[in-house]
Specification:
Layout (H helix, E strand, L loop, with lengths): L1 E6 L5 H13 L3 E6 L1 H10 L4 H5 L4 E4 L16 E7 L1 H8 L6 H11 L4 E5 L6 H12 L3 E2 L13 H16 L12
Length: 184
């Protein structure tokens, strides 16, 4: 399997790092794209360096590298996850404004009919945010804010992060044992 991961400047970089660690442990090929603010937010929010996170991905790209393979519809992959997804990126994707590699790769993912998951991070949501989400949901894009499942009785932040990562993997059809499932 081949998964594209975009990291934007919204809060929640640890979600992307955790997802990349899991995908790597499963032996899956990953293509990582950072926005400039995604890099900066990762540095501000975590104790991880960009170089360290880069080692978790099979390939990495800058947001201004429009010649990267992931910008083409002929580049096949099994899904793209933008985690965390800023409202700026949500708006760009919803309106076809492919001004950087993340929004271009998402645009291509939609036009090729592939799985696109936006792990949106904002609260409260404005009517503009909701309209952009609805527009994309109608196109088949999965809008997936990282909402913890308290039925699993999380004890740590890592438990909460793993729950969100597990739900992302579910959407990609990737088997895992990260989460406690309802009724199990």
């Amino acid at each position: 399997m081949r998964i594209v991961v975009g990291i934007t400047g919204a809060s929640g970089s640890i979600l992307a790092i955790t997802l990349l660690k899991i995908l790597r442990s499963l032996g899956l090929e990953t293509h990582l794209i950072y926005s400039d603010w995604g890099k900066r937010t990762l540095e501000l929010e975590t104790n991880h360096t960009i170089d360290e996170v880069n080692t978790l991905a099979s390939y990495t790209y800058r947001e201004d590298d429009q010649a990267a393979p992931v910008s083409s519809g002929s580049f096949r992959h099994n899904g793209m996850v933008i985690v965390p997804c800023s409202m700026k990126t949500l708006s760009a994707v919803a309106n076809g404004y492919a001004d950087n590699l993340i929004s271009r790769a998402a645009d291509v993912t939609i036009k090729e009919g592939r799985k696109l998951i936006l792990v949106t991070r904002e609260s409260p949501l404005s009517a503009i945010h909701l309209e952009n989400m609805l527009k994309l949901a109608r196109l088949g894009v999965t809008i997936m804010p990282p909402v913890p499942g308290f039925y699993a009785k999380p004890q740590t932040i890592e438990d909460i992060v793993h729950h969100s990562a597990g739900r992302i993997l579910d959407q990609l059809g990737i088997e895992h044992n990260l989460i406690h499932r309802w009724g199990e």
